[in-house]
Prior knowledge:
The chain is an alpha+beta fold. The protein has helices at 24-35, 40-49, 51-73, 99-102, 111-119, 131-140, 144-147; strands at residues 9-12, 15-18, 91-95, 126-130.
Amino acid sequence: MPKYAKDGVRQYKKRNIDWSKPDSEKNYRKIYYEENPRDPKVSLDQYYKNQKNILKRMKASREKDRLTVMNHYSDGKLECDCCGEQNYMFLTINHDEGRKKWNHPHSLNGHKLYRWLIKNNFPKGFSVKCFNCNIAEGLYGFCIHKKLDGKKVLPK
């Protein structure tokens, strides 16, 4: 609710906005930007002026989302479900039944996938795997750690 709101209603250029409604913030922003259009050149100048800080905040936000998703799907252990790899930088999210089941476009990867998982309340059907196990499952249909019990495999 804005700073100067009285009794949940704010007067904004002859419009009353009821802040008790869930979409009131969206409506307020829509009205504001209709009446105060942005100059793209000014916005771009502000971006370049603050680029380092903006990119730093974006990176921190993405890392926070990734950690949230990894913690949820690994039950707080942060390790590969298959081989037990614990290096955080090697861990990825695996679609347990493949990407086709979820009908995800290939562009839904990385931070976009993490945000999608958070937004959809962590649906079942995903797990944490290290990159090697995830790729092996995608290419061969099984993880080498589980199927071959450590036997050396040479390509044909």
